[in-house]
């Protein structure tokens, strides 16, 4: 994994905060901050992230040299790498993806991804992967790799993740978002599958109609299709 420089810590408040600070200090593309535990781990929209010892918490600084509008594509690229990592350690398993940032085993969340733009051409992408333990009080179905039948460690999961990420980043750099979008769709909901989208305090229901060219969710409802650029999806 020559493009990645891994900084391993026993405990950090937040790998995202540490990676953001490294970015502002000029850290190079491919800097990875990993912690065995987080005391202030966070997910999307400022939510707390369950961070006991035994799971994988990593934040990756990427400087792809692309306009800021395209940096959101990195969330899909990392999701593909995370799904590949789950497949690599899970006997007979195939991870699924849920828009915009979740990795599932069957219908249970095993990993979440957070993308934060830190400079005009740089982003920090965080991933939390439940290896040994899943939260007890999550408001949605959750699992961990151990409970799903995988015998692995955070270190092994990181190796698989970064190997897959190098592969997917190379394809993205060469072919753009089109092939990555197709790969994501192959792991996403079935076309026409009924889904619910939480947008703020509102929940809309419709059928999954794919992803737009920029990764926006396409939701079919009442005979029309509309774009959703921010929200959370649950399978209905």
The gist of it:
The protein is α+β, with helices and mostly antiparallel strands and 236 residues long. The protein has helices at residues 15-24, 73-89, 154-175, 177-187, and strands at 5-12, 31-38, 56-62, 96-98, 102-105, 108-119, 122-129, 194-199, 202-211, 217-221, 224-228, 232-235.
Task: Supply the key terms.
236 residues, alpha+beta, 7-stranded mixed beta sheet, globular
Q: Layout of SSEs?
A:
Blueprint: E1 5-12, H1 15-24, E2 31-38, E3 56-62, H2 73-89, E4 96-98, E5 102-105, E6 108-119, E7 122-129, H3 154-175, H4 177-187, E8 194-199, E9 202-211, E10 217-221, E11 224-228, E12 232-235
Parallel strand pairs: 1-2
Antiparallel strand pairs: 2-3, 3-7, 4-5, 5-6, 6-7, 8-9, 8-12, 9-10, 10-11
Report on the structure:
By secondary structure, the protein is an alpha+beta fold. It is built from 4 helices and 12 strands; from the N terminus they run E-H-E-E-H-E-E-E-E-H-H-E-E-E-E-E. The chain has a 7-stranded mixed beta sheet with strand order 1-2-3-7-6-5-4, sandwiched between helices. Strand 8 (194-199) and strand 9 (202-211) form a beta hairpin. The chain is globular. The chain starts with a strand and ends with a strand.
Provide the gyration radius in Å. 17 Å
Number of β-strand runs: 12
Q: What topology, given as strand order, has the largest sheet? A: 1-2-3-7-6-5-4
| Terminal residue distance | 39 Å
Percent range for helical residues?
Answer: 25-40%
Spell the H/E element sequence: EHEEHEEEEHHEEEEE
Note the main sheet: 7 strands, mixed
| Shape, principal axes of CA atoms | globular
Instruction: Provide the structure class.
Output: alpha+beta
């Amino acid at each position: 994994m020559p493009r990645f420089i891994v900084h391993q810590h026993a405990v950090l408040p937040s790998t995202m905060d540490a990676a953001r600070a490294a970015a502002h200090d000029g850290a190079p593309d491919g800097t990875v901050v990993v912690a065995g535990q987080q005391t202030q781990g966070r997910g999307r929209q400022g939510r707390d992230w369950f961070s006991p010892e035994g799971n994988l918490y990593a934040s990756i600084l990427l400087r792809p040299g692309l306009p800021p509008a395209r940096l959101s594509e990195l969330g899909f690229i990392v999701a593909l790498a995370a799904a590949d990592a789950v497949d690599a350690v899970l006997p007979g398993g195939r991870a699924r993806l849920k828009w915009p940032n979740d990795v599932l085993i069957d219908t249970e969340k095993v990993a979440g991804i957070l993308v934060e733009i830190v400079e005009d051409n740089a982003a920090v992408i965080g991933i939390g992967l439940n290896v040994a333990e899943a939260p007890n009080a999550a408001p949605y179905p959750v699992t961990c790799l151990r409970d799903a039948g995988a015998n692995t460690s955070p270190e092994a999961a990181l190796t698989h993740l970064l190997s897959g990420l190098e592969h997917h980043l190379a394809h993205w750099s060469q072919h753009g978002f089109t092939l990555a979008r197709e790969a994501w769709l192959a792991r996403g909901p079935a076309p026409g599958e009924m889904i619910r989208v939480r947008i703020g305090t509102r929940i809309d229901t419709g059928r999954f109609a794919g992803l737009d060219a920029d990764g926006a969710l396409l939701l079919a409802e009442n005979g029309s299709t509309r774009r959703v650029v921010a929200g959370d999806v649950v399978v209905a």
